[in-house]
Design brief:
There is one protein chain. With 190 residues, this protein is mainly α. The chain is built from 10 helices and no strands. The longest helix has 23 residues.
C-alpha cells in the first residue's frame, strides 16, 4: 500500500463535505446538503434495504459510500444539466482515475463501482434504490421547511425505484413527518 496515495485520497474524500447537492438549487434552496451528508445517509439506508432484500449488505454499504466519490472531481450536476453532457461517462472516468493509484484496494473498489454503474446485480439495484430513498427523505425534509417543489423529486422517484422493499419504504417516507422521530424522546419534568 502506498501511504502517500492513500493519504491524498483521504484528503480528496474530504472535498465531498464542500460539494453541495446542486439539484436543490432549482427550487431555490440556498444551502443544500453536501454530497458527504447524502452519501452517509445513503449507506445507512443501503444497509437496511439490503437486509430487507436479503442481499450482501456489506457490498451495498460500500457501493453507497463510494457512489458519488467522482463528484470531488466533476462536482454534482443536477438532472437538467445532465441533458447537455454525458455525465455517466464522466463519472466512470473520474472513478477510474481516482482509484487507479490505490493498489489492490483501488481495483476492488473500481470493480464495485463498475458493478454499480452497470446495475446488473441485486446489490447494484439496492444501492441505486438507497440513493433514491435518501433523495426522497431529503425532499420530504425540504417540503417540511417550506420548499413544496421538492415533491417533484418524490414523484419522480416513485416512478423509478425497483425493489419491493424500497417501494414500501417510500410509502412510509411519504406518510411520516420528518420530526416524528424525536417527539416522544423529549424529557419533560415538572
Amino acid at each position: 500500500m502506498n501511504l502517500k496515495n492513500i493519504t491524498n485520497f483521504f484528503y480528496e474524500v474530504g472535498q465531498l463535505k464542500r460539494v453541495k447537492r446542486s439539484g436543490w438549487w432549482l427550487i431555490n434552496m440556498n444551502n443544500p446538503e453536501s454530497v458527504a451528508e447524502h452519501s452517509q445517509r445513503s449507506a445507512v439506508i443501503g444497509y437496511f434495504l439490503a437486509k430487507m432484500e436479503k442481499v450482501d449488505a456489506n457490498k451495498v454499504v460500500l457501493m453507497c459510500l463510494f457512489h458519488d466519490m467522482h463528484e470531488t472531481r466533476i462536482n454534482d450536476l443536477h438532472k437538467v444539466g445532465q441533458r447537455y453532457i454525458n455525465f455517466k461517462e464522466a463519472e466512470v472516468k473520474a472513478h477510474s482515475e481516482q482509484l487507479e493509484s490505490l493498489d489492490e484496494e483501488g481495483k476492488e473498489l473500481l470493480g464495485l463501482m463498475t458493478e454499480m454503474h452497470q446495475r446488473k446485480t441485486p446489490e447494484a439495484e439496492v444501492c441505486r434504490d438507497a440513493d433514491l430513498l435518501e433523495n426522497a427523505l431529503q425532499a420530504k425534509e425540504y417540503i417540511k421547511i417550506g420548499y413544496p417543489d421538492a415533491q417533484n423529486w418524490i414523484d419522480n422517484i416513485r416512478k423509478i425505484i425497483k425493489t419491493e422493499s424500497a417501494k414500501k419504504l417510500l410509502g412510509e417516507i411519504e406518510h411520516t413527518d420528518p420530526n416524528d422521530w424525536w417527539k416522544n424522546l423529549k424529557k419533560i419534568e415538572r
